[in-house]
Amino acid sequence: MSATTPEKHVFQAEIQQLLDLVVHSLYTDKEIFLRELISNASDAMEKLRHIEATEKNIHQPTLPLEIHITTDEEAKTLTITDHGIGMSHDELVKNLGTIAHSGTKSFLKSVKEGGATPANMIGQFGVGFYSAFMVSDKVSVYSRAWHADSPELVWTSDGISGYEIEETSGLERGSKLVLHLKEDGAEYATETRVKHLVETYSNFVGFPIFLNGTRINEVEALWLKNKSEITEEQYKAFYQFACKSWDDPSYRLHFSADAPLAINSLVFAPSENPERMGFGKAECGVALYSRKVLIDASPKGLLPDWMRFMKGVVDSADIPLNISRETMQDSALIRKLGSVISKRVIRMFEKEAEADPEKYRGFYRKFDRFFKEGVATDHANREALAKLLRFESSLTDAGAVCGFADYVSRMKDGQESIYYLVGSNRDQIESSPYLEAFKARGLEVIFFTDAVDEYVVDSLGAFDGKKLVSVRHGGVELEEQATEGEALSPELTASLCEFLKVELGERVVSVSSGKRLVENPVIALVPADGMSPQMRQMMKAIDENFKDQVKVELEINPRHPLVRKLAETKDGNPELARLVSRQLLDNALMAAGLLDDARDTVSRMNTLMEKAMGA
Ligand code: ADP
Predict the structure, then answer these.
(1) Residue closest by Cα to atom 20 of ligand 1
(2) How many domains does the chain have?
(3) pTM
């Protein structure tokens, strides 16, 4: 490259697309460009601070870490200067000429599909720099990278098809952006307008900002301040600026501790869940700082994975600055820190849920999968997280929810287990024959209706020392209760069970007289180690050849007229009794969602109807 001939480059196709979008579609919120550029300047200086801890060869090491903005109304320019890490030739090409982030592609996609509110999300997707072209028809980026031997360069573009890079001289370390404003962007060359924007969007930037020589922001690491000195607006602005969010926070936890670790932490729960909106798995949104110096914006291994929806800052003076991303996951210190934070966060949710159950319910509806994932994967916090789960039950109204703690508080004297039933929705579960016996005894049954619930319940196993038991399974001990109606004698019942066992053969594990039934003649129970209908469905979805001979425990209701009649018929008309027995089993399997092949069932049904009509 020579100092006289500028090197010409063409923008990558996606960048052109992006620029076109940014310039022509997002202009309603033009003013955010300044926030984006200041944020880049601040990031560049954070990076420099970090490098300072480990590198020696830094150019102009004593330059103050400040952002300087100057306006020139006459020339219609706005200049933003930082003393951050700057960019080398390759970095200029890579960072400003190609799409470096996979996020940018999803941004383009989401804009095209028209779902998201792009103007607010622009920073979220890392397309910040290009927003300069919303207000400028030419942008020059003067840059000198931090290495002592880096060249001085200027990158210039009209934001349409390409850019040029040229050598220059007289630069200090860092970047200087000169925006040549468009006619309708001229307001951004006036001091009052720019001052207002900085105060609105960039007040918490961790470096001093000067406008035409005068300091205009308060440098605030909000998380280090006293709660009583912070207003709601400041919290919200921090959440949106520092955490790059576009929604409002729904909950927040601001706390400090001295022992066992020095911690200052400010974390938020959002009100929108991007994973639910189809944006893919989020990265950890809680940044790790040590004494205001950013260590990692998205540290892996600090917080349990299920907490990735939380946003904010954890600052611990006990964490060494030069801890590397690689060693972080193995660090006992980091684990300790993460464990303290996650416990506090869970407790925060517990308290908030108690204080305002309605609000929590709305929040839970959007974020429930994270808590469920936590129960399944975060061993250390499993029981605490289980308290945060919400569900409907046989004692809640449709649409209303409760938690395990509510359930336990309502348990009957002598009840030792927590009963639940998995199904696809409340109606389906309520009409299930499994529920009868529990209803009759006033025992509450939890209704799990989310596809992942069964897995979650399996991992949890128990709550508060009480076993979680599916009412679908055999082996549930129910109390004897006074039941109405005449029943078969114990002898006749035993011989009917015997008959059925022989008749149904391989299809049943056992046949017994049950205490469960009130309305139905028989019920099919899945053995405690058997697969539930949901699990079987999943297996079938994964493997089309999946065949699992369902074997159930059959319970009969000795008070039911059909059963009583069957006991007589088996001696008088064994052939009819045989047909009825098989039909009863099929009916029970059908009610349980376990009947795979109904061909026999239908033809048998026809035979039975013929007989009933005396054909
Ligand atoms: P983002 O800031 O979200 O990464 P941008 O499009 O705003 O996306 O910037 C792209 C990249 O350009 C940044 O990641 C950074 O590496 C580099 N960059 C932008 N501004 C500066 C600056 N002032 N100093 C150093 N590097 C910068």
Answers:
(1) 40
(2) 4
(3) 0.68
